[in-house]
Amino acid sequence: LPTVADLTNLVVVMVRPRNPLNIGAAARAMSNFGVHCLRVVNPYAVAFREARSAVGASELLRNAEEFTSVAAAVSDCLLVLGTTAARNRTLQNTLRQLDLRSSGTIHKQLRSGRVAILFGSEKIGLTNDDFSHCHWLLKIPTRETNVSMNLGQAVAVCLYELARAPEAKSATARNTTAKNKEKVDRATVGVNEQITTTLLEALRHSGYVKPGTESACEKKVRRLVLRFNLEKMDAEVLLGMARQIVWRMRQHTPKS
Amino acid sequence: LPTVADLTNLVVVMVRPRNPLNIGAAARAMSNFGVHCLRVVNPYAVAFREARSAVGASELLRNAEEFTSVAAAVSDCLLVLGTTAARNRTLQNTLRQLDLRSSGTIHKQLRSGRVAILFGSEKIGLTNDDFSHCHWLLKIPTRETNVSMNLGQAVAVCLYELARAPEAKSATARNTTAKNKEKVDRATVGVNEQITTTLLEALRHSGYVKPGTESACEKKVRRLVLRFNLEKMDAEVLLGMARQIVWRMRQHTPKS
Hints:
Two copies of one chain form a homodimer. In chain A, strands 3-2-1-6-4-7-5 form a seven-stranded parallel β-sheet. Chain A has helices at residues 20-33, 45-50, 58-62, 70-73, 100-110, 128-131, 151-163, 166-177, 189-206, 214-228, 232-252; strands spanning 10-15, 37-41, 65-67, 79-83, 95-97, 115-119, 136-139. By secondary structure, chain A is α/β, with parallel strands linked by helices. Chain A has eleven helices and seven strands. In chain A, helix 5 (100-110) crosses helix 8. The A-B interface holds A 1-4, 21, 25, 28-29, 31-34, 55-57, 97, 99-100, 139-143, 145-150, 152-154, 156-157, 160-161, 163-165, 168, 171 and B 1-4, 21, 25, 28-29, 31-34, 55-57, 97, 99-100, 139-143, 145-150, 152-154, 156-157, 160-161, 163-165, 168, 171.
C-alpha cells in the first residue's frame, strides 16, 4: 500500500477551541496522518490542559504552542488557509472546495515552506478577522441541509485529504505544472503582516482611516497585501519603503 | 461547487460501540454527507440511549435500528465492507485502501442496491467473526506509527471519501467500465448467509465439522460463499439444493 504524503511543513492552528475532546481528537488525527505541529490561539485554559490524553498523540500535545493572536501563530508560514462551512456568510476571501485540486495547490507550497490551516471554535468557527489572515478558504463538501461538521472530524477529513497518497495527485498536478514551473521564494505571512501594520500606520497618519473604520480598514489592508502574493525580495523592498514613509509621517504629525 | 454523491443506499453499521459520543459523532458525519441509514449491533444500552444529541442528526439517531447480530444487520445488502487498521493481524479477507478506486467500486454496487460499511468497537475494532461477514476490508491510509483512528473520525473520513463529488471519480471509473459492462443482479448477503447456514448444517451432519472447530468452520464457509459472488438466480438454486441435502441428512441422522 502506498505511504502517506509528507506533511512535515503543515501547521494546524486551532483558534479559540473550547472542548478538550476536540483538541485531543485533532491531535490524534494529526498523529494518524503525520502532522506534527499544533498551534493553539487563545484556547480556554481548562480545555487546553485537559486535552493531554489523545491516543498516541501525547507528545504532540505537549509540544503544542500557544499564541495570543492569529497573526503570531502564522507569521512563519508561506500560505494560510481558513476552514469554513461557508453558511450564511458573505465571504471576501476566495472559497475553494477540499479536493484533489486544492490539495495539490497546498502541496506545491508545502514543498517550499510552512502552510497553516486554521480551524475555528466549535460554536462560531473563524471570524471575519481571522479570515483576513487567510490567503483563501477551504470548505469540506457537505450537504446543504447540515453543512457544519464536528471540529475533530473536520480536522481528520482535511488531513486525510492532504495525506492522500501522492500518486493519486499526480494526474491532477500534471495539468497545473506548466504554468507554475519557475520556483519562486514567496514572503512569509509574518513579513506580509509587518507590511500591513506599517501601511496601516501610514494610512492612519494620512487621514485615510476614518474614525470608527479602524478595524475594517485593517482587514482590508491585510487582504490586499496577501493578494500581492509577494516574492521574498519584493516584500523586503516594500517593507523598507513603507517604514521609510511612516518614519517621515511621524515627524510631521503633532504629538498628542 | 459540485454536489456530493448519492449515498442513499449506504448503510453504516456500528458493531458494539461503547461511547455515546462516538455514536453521536458518526450520526453527525452521516448527516453531513447524506447517509441516512444507521444500524447498531449490540451497543452498550447506555451508550445508545445517550447518543441522542448529535448536532443536526437527532432524527437519524431516532431512526437507527438495533440488531443482535452482524448477519441480521447486513442481510438486505449486496456488499459488506469491514473497516480495519490492519495492525498485528493476519487477515483472511482482501484488504483495500480507502481511495478513489475502492470508492469507485463501492459506488458501482450502490447503484444496484444496499452496501453496508462496518465499524467495530473503540477498543478492539471488528473481530475475525465480524470479518467473515465482509466481502472485503477497507483501511484508511494512516501512518505506521499510529494507525488506529478515533471511531467518529474514521466514520467521517470514510463518508467524506464516498461522498466525494462524482466527477472526481469519473476518470478512475472509466478504466474499469469495459470489463463490468454487463449489469448482473447479485444475491443479497441475507441469501448468502442462508446458504452458509444450510451448508454448515450439511457439513455438521456429514461429520466434516470436527468437535471444537465449529466456529472456525462457520467463518470458513461464510467466506467461501461470499467469494462465490453469486448471481441472484444462482443463489436461489444453490440454496434450494443445500436445503434439500439437509432435509435428507436429517432423516438419516439419529436423534440425540
